[in-house]
Design brief:
By secondary structure, the protein is an alpha+beta fold. Helix content is 16%, strand content 47%. The chain has an eight-stranded antiparallel barrel. α1 packs across α3 and α2 packs across α3. It is rod-shaped. It starts with a helix and ends with a strand.
């Protein structure tokens, strides 16, 4: 049995048993069609469906005083597939069915076949025959033409082509805690942007840390206020590409601008130092939706240069450590 004939048979039984739910005595009568069509832009096929129903039934279709009212709502998803919610109403009841297809034309033809079989279940549908190929022009490029009935009926049966991968951008906002660098664990907030392609991503992030006051034990009331700002460039690779909870390994450079201002002395001094460090981090992402995920980062910043911070009139404030562990959590919005 050819695919087109098999699909017509399937739609015949669906139209009788699922769409209309009509009793056997009602199937014996044909009825005029009243059609309401709602669809996305470029998919208005109401006139086509009415004309196709008439052509499928041929000239032998009979009319009755009991109309067949049909409402069709067509939707297109992000992948370009179409679906239609078909609702029919007659004097004998209401029926509903959902149809799916690869194009608006395929959906329109499927709706036409279902409605034609609903109008006249015993009618012999007149499908267009496929044109015979012309051997003299077999290698020529054919111009675009409307799909025939058989082509449109076969179209939903073709496998979907996979969409090529593409790069996506994302925004992130996070809060975290940095250990060891300042006088006590330092909380911070960070914002960043990034781009992701397959299992690779590249992001840049800026962070502002809470101001800390450091008091010197040998001089009562004297100390320094510490301010820290940092910028980080990370490249990440998804080592465990789980659908719900992927895990990334990240590495990259970081710049830290540390400023200290003395207080509690006659002539307070201030100074700053720019630190360069390397960052290693592990990241776990929990997907909430297709575009939103929560992230947890655990990592460490390592510095080859770690000087002692000295302020005039105060003395040694503190020594910059070699390693500073950190932990952060936040949200990533991908688009």
């Amino acid at each position: 049995m050819r695919p087109a004939v098999a699909l017509v048979c399937a739609l015949r039984f669906a139209s009788i048993g699922l769409v209309l739910g009509l009793p056997a005595r009602a199937a014996a009568q044909s009825a005029p069609l009243e059609l309401t069509w709602q669809g996305p832009r470029g998919c208005d096929r109401a006139g086509y469906v009415r004309e196709r129903v008439a052509r499928l039934l041929g000239s032998g279709a009979r009319k009755s005083d009991s109309p067949l009212r049909a409402r069709v709502a067509v939707h297109e998803d992000a992948a370009g597939r179409f679906s239609a919610d078909l609702e029919t109403e007659t004097a004998y009841g209401v029926g509903r069915k959902r149809l799916e297809g690869e194009s608006c034309d395929a959906i329109a033809l499927a709706v036409a076949v279902v409605l034609a079989l609903a109008v006249a279940p015993d009618a012999e549908l007149e499908l267009e025959a496929e044109p015979e190929p012309d051997p003299d022009f077999a290698l020529a490029t054919e111009p675009a033409r409307p799909l025939s009935d058989r082509e449109a009926l076969r179209e939903p049966l073709r496998p979907r082509q996979p969409r090529p991968p593409r790069a996506s951008a994302y925004l992130q906002a996070s809060g975290g805690v940095l250990f060891s660098l300042l006088s006590e664990p330092s909380t911070y907030i960070a914002f960043g942007v990034g781009t992701r392609y397959r299992r690779f991503s590249l992001e840049i992030t800026g962070a502002a840390h809470r101001t800390h006051s450091l008091y010197l034990s040998e001089r009562a009331g004297a100390g320094a206020e510490l301010e820290l700002f940092s910028a980080r460039l990370l490249g990440c690779f998804t080592v465990l590409p789980y659908e719900l909870t992927p895990f990334d390994a990240c590495a990259g450079p970081q710049l830290e601008n540390l400023t200290a201002t003395a207080f509690g002395v006659t002539d307070p001094d201030s100074g700053s130092v720019l630190l360069v460090s390397g960052v290693l981090a592990l990241r776990a992402r929990l997907r909430a939706t297709s575009w939103l995920s929560a992230a947890l980062d655990v990592g460490v910043a390592a510095r080859a240069f770690h000087p002692t911070f000295v302020l005039q009139g105060v003395g040694d404030v503190f020594e910059v450590p070699t390693l500073s562990p950190f932990i952060a959590t936040g949200l990533n919005a991908e688009f």
